[in-house]
Amino acid sequence: MNQNIPENEKTPLVTSLLETINEQAKKIEALEQEILKLKKETIKPNIKPSKLNRDNKGDNRKPKKRSTKGIPKKKKNIEIHEEKKIELETLGSGDENKLLRKK
User: Considering only Cβ atoms within 10 Å of each terminal Cβ, which end of the chain, N or C, has fewer?
Assistant: First the structure.
């Protein structure tokens, strides 16, 4: 603990109070560590990614975006040439259950 008290103002009472404060700070730290241990929580270290496989030239560059030159564009409005209605054939008794299960 930082003691910014001038030497001429340090009385025996002030000295004993500073010692008590230091002891209490140590006890508080020990109790906080015990609480973390009981909760099974530990402060994990901040591990930075490895730099072994990286080239020195491209460390500060952003990755390039993928080119879309060869990819055809999606059409919003698709032209419908013809509409047909198709009737469903008659189903047997077991076929209806199979259709319902697939959905």
Answer: C
